[in-house]
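Form 7-S
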Amino acid sequence: MSLRSGGFRSSYHGFFSLSLEERPTATRLPARLEARLKPVILAGAVLLSLVAGWTDLRSRRIPNWLTIPGLLVGVAANTILSGWSGLKGSLLGAAVGLALLLPFVLLRSLGAGDWKLAGALGAFTGPGVLIDLLLGSVFVAGLMAVALVIYKGRVRQTLRNIGHILISLVTFRLPGSRVSLDNPDSLKVPYGVALALTVVLYGILWKLRIVA
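Output:
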């Protein structure tokens, strides 16, 4: 038995020789496989969000035929690639997305399609990345809303509506039809588009290794 700089080598009468440089090959395979998981999952999330953003931009709705199968595909993909831990992370991500946006759906300030899209994206990305995406989408949607308000010349009305929403959140009451999605005169920012842009931006930043 001898110790060399190239690794640990054991031999017995020339019949058996094993190096640590060869042994970790099998143990490194799961790590290599794991390195491929995130690009596959992220690609699925980007594709889902792009289709959802396109349908939201064209028809102002995100259909169930996209979000529900998307959620199931996200759960299945994570389960196949990561096993039990992938299944738990996927289900938790979907639950977090649905739970966080549910109050806005109840207040009629967010559509059900956007709500289901968040759950489907959570099934792909898990809770950690999804929270980052939702926070980023708030800023993207805010920029879109500011541009739309300025373009339409309705700054004062928008400020009043924001006040009604804040009061409703504090008092746990519905803000009324003036700031509801049912009001045909209200300015509506397609949140599905904002969320899709955020996911695409995240994918670009991940590719550039700016985000983990």
